[in-house]
């Protein structure tokens, strides 16, 4: 399975979320996912909301263009970013050399 996949709707990315981290940041690649550390706790959907907000800011897209398609209660998540290319996601997340 690819970490970042372009579809007709946009780009799907696999994420390994690390909640309750000291800072919000993209922490590289782990197996078949992008590792993201967030300060938000994994309770009542707070980490998922923080993830969408964090990605929207990094990718410079509206939060409404980001959808959690799987992994709502899991650390492994799949996110769809509508109307975005794989190159845009890779560049904005600073992963050009890792992927």
Could you explain how this protein is built, in words?
By secondary structure, the protein is of the alpha+beta class. It has a single domain, classed as 2-Layer Sandwich (Conserved Hypothetical Protein Mth637, Chain: A). Helices cover 21% and strands 35% of the residues. It has two helices and six strands, in the order ββββαββα. Strands 1, 2, 3, 4, 5 and 6 form a six-stranded mixed β-sheet that branches. β5 and β6 form a beta hairpin. The longest helix is centred in the middle third of the chain and has 14 residues. The mean pLDDT is 93.
The CATH class = Alpha Beta
Main sheet: strands, sense, barrel: 6 strands, mixed
Q: What is the CATH superfamily classification? A: YggU-like
The sequence of SSEs as H and E is EEEEHEEH
| Computed structural class | alpha+beta
Shape-level CATH architecture: 2-Layer Sandwich
Shape: globular
* Radius of gyration over all CA atoms, rounded: 12 Å
> How confident is the prediction overall: mean pLDDT?
93
Q: Whole-Å distance between the termini?
A: 13 Å
By DSSP, the count of extended strands is 6
Strand content: 35-45%
Q: Please mark out the parts with pLDDT under 50 across 5 or more consecutive residues, or reply none.
A: none
Overall number of domains: 1
- Report the CATH topology name: Conserved Hypothetical Protein Mth637, Chain: A
Helix content: 10-25%
* Count of helix runs: 2
């Amino acid at each position: 399975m690819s970490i970042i996949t372009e579809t007709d709707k946009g780009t799907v990315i696999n994420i390994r979320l690390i909640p309750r981290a000291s800072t919000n940041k993209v922490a590289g690649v782990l197996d078949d996912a992008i590792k993201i550390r967030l300060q938000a706790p994994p309770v009542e959907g707070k980490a998922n909301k923080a993830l969408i907000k964090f990605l929207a800011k990094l990718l410079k897209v509206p939060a409404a263009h980001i959808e959690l398609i799987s992994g709502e209660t899991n650390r492994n998540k799949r996110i769809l970013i509508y109307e975005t290319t794989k190159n845009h996601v890779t560049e904005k997340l600073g992963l050009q050399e890792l992927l």
